[in-house]
Structure to design on (297 residues):
């Protein structure tokens, strides 16, 4: 898919979703160097993924605190013993049967990759889920109120194993709006994987539906520079925006600093798309690690 550069922030900024990234939105391409974080071509690392699951499940590396997990209500979305696993399509909440691409295992893999990166462990082995080509985003949120902690993705199609391995770390460590995620934040994290599909050139800047479509806009700044910006399908609904507010916020996110007039809005080229989204919290990941450890013994 030839829809702009790789390495885009997608879920909006902090409180108002408008804080731009460097150079108005774009991140430097990562096709060759992968930010020096991890080699995405490593097919299997270390002696066994079992050692990773043992580390997580038993509190290896002195972390996470093995005895304190159930006492931190922020890990359970405000309900002791609750689950933060959720599924969505086009930003809407649906059952597992409504998902054809996004699976919880993709989120578990993102946690594996980030955990291994933070504790300097061998990279996790190749996952078992499909490895088809899709555009994708990885979003990290933190705490009971799920504040945005990092979100970067690509509109280029990538193999899922490669793309999730790359963006799991890049979104946590390289989002210019935030400081890198630290080890102490892991138990409070939630990760979402969004698989993008059904791209359509819109007739105009209003030719999309809130809660159904993500949007990607192309526009020219007041100085004539071409810019792009995107919001994933869930962002306008989460922020309580109508279409005009969403477009205006997205222009600001992309680096437009002039007056947003009707002519500016009409000059936008808009592509709408849909997504499958899956979200997993750290408690679910911890349970997954314990089950895998028991299953591999």
């Amino acid at each position: 898919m030839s829809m702009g550069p790789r390495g885009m922030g997608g879920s909006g900024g902090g409180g108002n979703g408008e804080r731009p990234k460097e150079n108005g939105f774009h991140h430097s391409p990562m096709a060759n160097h992968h930010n020096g974080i991890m080699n995405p071509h490593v097919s299997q690392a270390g002696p066994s993924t079992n050692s990773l699951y043992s580390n997580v499940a038993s509190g290896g590396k002195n972390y996470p605190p093995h005895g304190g997990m159930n006492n931190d209500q922020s890990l359970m979305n405000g309900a002791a013993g609750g689950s933060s696993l959720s599924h969505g399509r086009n930003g809407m909440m649906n059952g597992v049967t409504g998902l054809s691409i996004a699976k919880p295992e993709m989120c578990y893999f993102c946690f594996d990759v980030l955990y291994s990166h933070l504790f300097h462990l061998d990279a996790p082995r190749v996952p078992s889920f499909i490895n088809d080509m899709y555009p994708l985003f990885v979003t990290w949120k933190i705490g009971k109120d799920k504040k945005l902690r990092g979100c970067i993705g690509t509109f280029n199609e990538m193999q899922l194993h490669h793309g999730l391995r790359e963006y799991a770390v890049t979104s946590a460590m390289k989002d210019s709006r935030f400081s890198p995620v630290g080890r102490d934040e892991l138990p409070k994290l939630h990760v979402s994987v969004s698989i993008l599909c059904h791209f359509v050139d819109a007739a105009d800047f209003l030719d999309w539906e809130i809660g159904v479509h993500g949007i990607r806009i192309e526009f020219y700044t007041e100085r004539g520079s071409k810019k792009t910006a995107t919001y994933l399908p869930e962002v306008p609904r989460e922020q309580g925006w109508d279409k005009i507010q969403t477009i205006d916020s997205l222009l600001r996110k992309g680096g437009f600093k002039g007056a947003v007039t009707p002519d500016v809005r009409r000059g936008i080229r808009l592509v709408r798309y849909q997504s499958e989204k899956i979200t997993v919290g750290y408690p679910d990941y911890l349970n997954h690690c314990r089950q895998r450890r028991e299953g591999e013994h």
